[in-house]
Design goal:
Number of strands: 7
Structural class: alpha+beta
Number of helices: 3
Strand content: 25-35%
């Protein structure tokens, strides 16, 4: 993934090439380092098909989101282990997902465990009516604490 880095007074902004059009239209930073903190804008897991996504399709879409989170963190000199909080915004009962609320939450917990080990980041999960783009099922944003110049070789 090609990621452009833009220096700021407090750190930097990371913009993946595939999000440049969105950044231009909606005026946001996909990832922003401010001192020792890294803030990631929400990344949306979507069902781009009119037929409902099954459980495995949903888990694969979630993996795509967490891999993008990992790449954005890396572009900001941070790692998944540095994530201190995840915020997840769910569209429960979407006709685009063949899972109920319990199944959706279980799938997210299972995939999250593929990327995060104990002790886990703090987390909040909220229900929302809809997400952008159409077919959005869950949006995940992250905050990391990754001190610059720390002893672990960063």
């Amino acid at each position: 993934m090609d990621i452009r880095s833009v220096a700021t007074r407090t750190g930097m902004v990371a913009i993946p090439a595939e999000l440049q059009a969105d950044v231009d239209q909606f005026h946001y930073a996909p990832a922003r380092r401010a001192g020792d903190f890294v803030f990631l804008s929400g990344i949306v897991a979507c069902s781009r098909q009119p037929q409902p996504l099954d459980a495995e399709g949903f888990r694969e879409e979630l993996r795509r989101v967490f891999r993008q989170i990992e790449r954005l963190l890396h572009a900001c000199d941070a790692r998944l282990e540095d994530v201190v909080e995840l915020q997840m915004f769910h569209v429960f009962g979407s006709g685009r997902l063949a899972l109920g609320k319990a199944g959706q939450l279980a799938a997210i917990a299972a995939v999250r465990d593929e990327f995060f080990a104990a002790p886990y980041p703090a987390a909040v999960e909220l229900a929302v009516a809809e997400l952008n783009p159409d077919g959005g099922l869950v949006e995940i944003k992250a905050t990391a604490f990754a001190p610059l110049g720390s002893q672990d070789g960063r």
